[in-house]
Amino acid sequence: MKLKVTLLGMAVGVAAAGAQSPYISTVFEYRPAPGQFVNELPAYEEGDTEEDLRRKAEEYIAGQENGSLLSLGAWGGYVVVGFDHTIANADEGYDFKVCGNAFYAAANPNPDAPKGGSCEPGIVMVSRDTNGNGLPDDTWYELAGSEYARPATRHGYRVVYRRPDPARPAVPHPDDPNLTDTAYIAWHDNQGGSGYVERNLFHTQSYWPEWLEADSLVFEGTRLPDNGVDESGNRSYYVLYAYDWGYADNHPNTSDLCSFKIDWAVDSVGQPVHLPGIDFIKVYTGVLQMNGWLGECSTEISGITDLHPDLQPASGVASPSAAGWEVLSLPGGGWRVQTPCRARLTLYTPAGVPLANAVVEAGGNTLPGAHLPAGVYLLELRTDDGASRTLKAVKR
Ligand SMILES: [Ca+2]
Ligand SMILES: [Ca+2]
Ligand SMILES: [Ca+2]
Prior knowledge:
The chain is mainly beta and 396 residues long. It has helices spanning 2-16, 50-61, and strands spanning 26-31, 70-71, 78-88, 96-99, 103-104, 116-118, 122-127, 140-143, 154-162, 179-189, 194-200, 216-223, 228-230, 238-241, 259-260, 265-266, 277-285, 300-301, 303-306, 326-329, 335-339, 343-348, 354-360, 363-367, 375-383, 388-395.
């Protein structure tokens, strides 16, 4: 009991210290996957520990909107950050912005897809300090960006990278002198796939995080479809295309598309969750693709900004039923949908596939569902003023 009180006291003390900064206050963990900027951004020096690199990463991206570029390496490499306050989930608009170094190339020869250049989408996750200990040891939620429900997006993905053997002879690319070792760092995934992080002429340092002692590195998460295309057809010009929204290092920093809504959060099985605010953010490289001489797709970030640092999070999780929104399962297999006003309803499968649309009026409405298999469905209700809320609809 005494311990509990002490920990709570510490957490309150941290939150109350000093004025609120809109920027990152702490880097909790920096764990890049292998990549061509690893050991350079930031620089590894002989003898550095993981704590030294954590501190260097913090110097790069904390306390400023757009600091230095922190490279997360190939797919899965990540950084975990915190703030000196809880970032509130605003009723409308974006909640926070992530800066990176994405750009659209003027030379992109594809007129139908102008948002291509150097776009290296990173997946963003959020977490609440639910146990109040000030540490990111609570449940994480992915912000479901534009590609979340695409069939080509792989959820529950896992990759193991193996430390390169310095005695193994390099395997240069037969046609591309820029690629000095195409079998440099081997990886395999949990779906039967495998490949290599390739080494190129332009980055000659080790691509393996030198401060880590393990001989393999494991990362887990969501893998986005490949976004790089060799538009030249001869390995000379690669275009990395932006995804629509919801990813870090995916659009230029001047774009609203670098901003995020806490309302995009989903749980581990894709169910939307409502978080009144968040305390921690994790960003990891979302694409696993080599792009010839350009190297692997690797997300970089340079800062995160709370877009409304003075906004207080609503206390507790909002209860939809308390506000007059409710879904009840009916014995015959359908649902009773209770709303305080007129709303446009969309019924989704647990995987997010829309099944049906309807308009419901204020009060009780019956929604048929006898023909559907048992499971947890999602009901999105959008009011005439554009607000929306999502409720679970359980079919037994
Ligand atoms: Ca919101
Ligand atoms: Ca915690
Ligand atoms: Ca980048």
